[in-house]
Amino acid sequence: MAVIAMLLLTGISLKNAILLVDFAIHAERARGMTAREAIREACLLRLRPIVMTTFAAALGALPLILMGGCGEELRQPLGIALIGGLLVSQAQTMFTTPALYVVVGRLIGRRR
């Protein structure tokens, strides 16, 4: 069951990273911003939707942890893996995606 949680976490984390990168690329092209300025603005403007998605998924997984009854031993690890993974992926998305975007932007800038 925890493997199902990992698949869900991968999807949510990638969606969050795509939101940031897409917004930053659009800002770079449309307004002529540097990679650093564009990803900073993307992080500031897209933080709320990303946090809302994370909290909605975490609150959806909360009953899996709190519910008892038949099958509890299968559902509880799924809920724990989801909530823990959501917190880690949230932090990872907000720190590593901008850093990688700036590094890749610098590498592309050097090639040009």
Describe the structure.
This protein starts with a helix and ends with a helix. Helices cover 91% and strands 0% of the residues. The protein has one domain (9-111): Multidrug efflux transporter AcrB transmembrane domain (Multidrug efflux transporter AcrB transmembrane fold, Up-down Bundle), CATH 1.20.1640.10. By secondary structure, the protein is an all-alpha fold. The protein has helices at 2-31, 35-66, 72-111.
The CATH architecture designation is Up-down Bundle
Largest β-sheet summary: none
**Uncertain ranges:** none
Question: Given the structure, what is the number of helices?
Answer: 3
- Topology pattern, helix = H, strand = E: HHH
Overall pLDDT metric:
88
The helix content, as a percent range, equals over 70%
Number of strands: 0
* First-last Cα distance: 47 Å
Helix/strand-derived category reads mainly alpha
CATH fold category name:
Multidrug efflux transporter AcrB transmembrane fold
Rough outline? elongated
Number of domain modules: 1
Cα-based radius of gyration, to the nearest Å? 17 Å
Using the coordinates above, name the CATH class. Answer: Mainly Alpha
Could you give me the name of the CATH homologous superfamily? Multidrug efflux transporter AcrB transmembrane domain
Strand content: under 5%
Keywords: Membrane, Transmembrane, Transmembrane helix
GO cellular component, one term: plasma membrane
InterPro entries: Acrflvin-R
Protein name: Cobalt-zinc-cadmium resistance protein CzcA
